[in-house]
Amino acid sequence: MTTRRDFIAGGVAGVALASSSASSVLAAPKPKAAAAPAPIKPGEHKLVELPFKPEALKGLSAAMLTSHHANNYTGAVKNLNKVELELAKIDKDTPGFQVAALRERELTFTNSKILHECYFGNLGGDGKLTGAIDKRLATQFGSTARWEELFRATAMSLGGGSGWVILDANYATGDLRIYGSGGHSQALAFGQPLLVLDMYEHAYAIDYGAGHAKYIDAFFQNVRWSEVERRLARSDKAQQALRG
Ligand SMILES: [Fe+2]
After folding, report:
1. What's the gap in Å between 242 CA and the centre of ligand 1?
2. Starting from the edge strand earliest in sequence, which strands make up the sheet with 164-170, in order?
3. Is there a single domain that holds both residue 136 and residue 234?
4. What tens digit of pLDDT does each residue of 143-178 get?
5. Measured by CB atoms within 10 angstroms of the end CB, which terminus of the chain is less buried, N or C?
6. CA–centroid distance, residue 95 to ligand 1 (Å)
7. What pLDDT score does 131 carry?
8. How far is the CA of 64 from the centre of ligand 1 (A)?
9. Which of 121, 139, 172 is a domain's end point?
10. Residue 8 sits in the same domain as residue 117
11. Predicted local distance difference test score (pLDDT) of residue 243
12. Is residue 70 part of a domain?
């Protein structure tokens, strides 16, 4: 089982670029980070624990959070492992439709794993937006209030359906953007999730039924902005390296 610290470190790398190596880049940086991480063998992705005490969050019940983690997130990781084991059996005689289906599922479960780890990793805070991320959002969007208006509107647009709202560092442009998607496999190809909101109904229906607006309010009350800021700092370093 991965540690709490590893979990909080989530959200490093272009989500749609995810491969079997994606899990490894979610791990906390080691002092000697220059060495490439050891490859993860097919079917050996590990679950990451909730990085907070679920009963401590405001407006999000422990029952819902633990169900979300134990069923939806855990299911994605287990299915990713199963898909990878099937992919390992592919040879030149495997029908193309089977390969395509497995690759689609691989991407879906890989992104689900990454995004859920980012989502849980940016919860458990007091919701108070401060520090460098505060200034960056104001610079990018005109004001933090305008950023929040856009982020909330994107979340509301997904209510009753499914999807993700992601504040991303776009590595192609070097700026911060909000992306909304209807599924796990629709994600920015080259960037780092900074703040992730799960808008699948399983994330709120136990507590709020179809009342997704109240869930969005509760989400903002529990954002761990210190983690978002930590991801931003790592993103800035990564982009400097990429431009070098
Ligand atoms: Fe979810």
Report:
1. 31
2. 175-181, 164-170, 191-198
3. yes
4. 999 999 999 999 999 999 899 999 999 999 999 999
5. C
6. 32
7. 87
8. 11
9. 121
10. yes
11. 86
12. yes
